[in-house]
Amino acid sequence: MEKITITASKTYEVLTGSGLLPRAGAYIRQALGEKVRKICVVTDSNVAPLYSDALISSLEESGFVAVKFVFAAGEASKSLRTLSDLLEFLAQRQLTRSDALVALGGGVTGDLTGFAAASYLRGIPFVQVPTTLLAAVDSSVGGKTGVNLEAGKNLAGAFWQPSLVLFDTDTMATLSQDLLLDGAAEAIKAGAIADKELLSYIREKPDLKDPAVITHLSGRAIEIKRRVVQEDERDIGARQLLNFGHTLGHAIEKCSGFSVSHGHAVAIGMVIESRAALQFGWSREDCTAPLSEILKKFGFPLDCPYSASQLTQAALSDKKRQGDRLTLVIPVAQGDCQLKELPVSRLEEFIKAGLS
Ligand SMILES: NC(=O)c1ccc[n+]([C@@H]2O[C@H](COP(=O)([O-])OP(=O)(O)OC[C@H]3O[C@@H](n4cnc5c(N)ncnc54)[C@H](O)[C@@H]3O)[C@@H](O)[C@H]2O)c1
Ligand SMILES: O=C(O)C(=O)C[C@@H](O)[C@H](O)[C@H](O)COP(=O)(O)O
Ligand SMILES: [Zn+2]
């Protein structure tokens, strides 16, 4: 088992290994302490039949009373409506301040559960049990929680760190190739912003189904996230680097009515943002070309069916915007990105350059 310790507003461990789910109760008991009695396992309709029985049995063996909240799988459920249903469920089941939530699933489950944990009774503990590669390499760590609004992605939320992240690599066995690619996109992003060696490793197109590859990718990506989050938990500086490809990625998700997944949208977003940066003279060919090559090698569809004007409208709600200025993440060398400000009035021109 591998262990990474994250220290932000809370210190917690990320445990990674095979066979952890059936032993989750003991690890969760250790992280939460003896006081916690009831746990609500939050999971979606695809993950529930696969993994919730094993988790709940293990929680019960460790003396917890477990209840389960299941919502319809998919990005559309990352909404105020599901949040409201979940909060009402917690109240009906009489969870108290000495109880906790466990997010069993991908990034949608983790973001939704984390936000419920941050707001229920003004804050109770929660644990992340990621079951997608994307959640394992990115969303389960760092404490960004939230839901989407009609106006766009993640527009309501809170910073609320988990008490433990427990990643059982065996759960990756049931992921489709597209879901593995979603995770690969965020790992490539991590490499692009801060880890040239990780990028070189991914360039060799390692087998995403191989548990050793999964362990390596999540270990490196989480290590990058650990450093960034420890420096800037609240996303006012360096943490914004983790948003490479997301200004356009989130816009593409929104324009597609969420039919394009987060990971696939971020892949297209990284290409558009890199190309635009190159056209603006802020990046270099020897930095942007290898990134596109890696994404093509994995078979990501990289064409964007939306116009610069549609994408600009959608991107105006980006959280890196402050008034009439937007901070962009620009690749400046392989494994290195920098933040650069752009007046919002030039955003469409920037996006047009990236689409050409
Ligand atoms: N908080 C953060 O830092 C952060 C970081 C990155 C992404 N995100 C968010 O995460 C979300 C995307 O996460 P995601 O790609 O995991 O989406 P997701 O949670 O919707 O999971 C994708 C699909 O995989 C299914 N699934 C999950 N685990 C499975 C398994 N082991 N076997 C088979 N199917 C399984 C789910 O039911 C779902 O249909 C987006 O909303 C994105 O904004 C948040
Ligand atoms: O943890 C972060 O910080 C990130 O930006 C990670 C991103 O991969 C993730 O998609 C995040 O949810 C985007 O955050 P947002 O602030 O743009 O909503
Ligand atoms: Zn992301």
From TrEMBL:
The keyword Cell cycle does not apply. Binds 1 divalent metal cation per subunit. Can use either Co(2+) or Zn(2+). Keywords: Amino-acid biosynthesis, Aromatic amino acid biosynthesis, Cobalt, Cytoplasm, Lyase, Metal-binding, NAD, Nucleotide-binding, Zinc. Coiled coil: none annotated. Residues 183-320 form the 3-dehydroquinate synthase C-terminal domain. Its main location: cytoplasm. Pathway: Metabolic intermediate biosynthesis; chorismate biosynthesis; chorismate from D-erythrose 4-phosphate and phosphoenolpyruvate: step 2/7. Catalyzes the conversion of 3-deoxy-D-arabino-heptulosonate 7-phosphate (DAHP) to dehydroquinate (DHQ). Belongs to the sugar phosphate cyclases superfamily. Dehydroquinate synthase family. This is 3-dehydroquinate synthase.
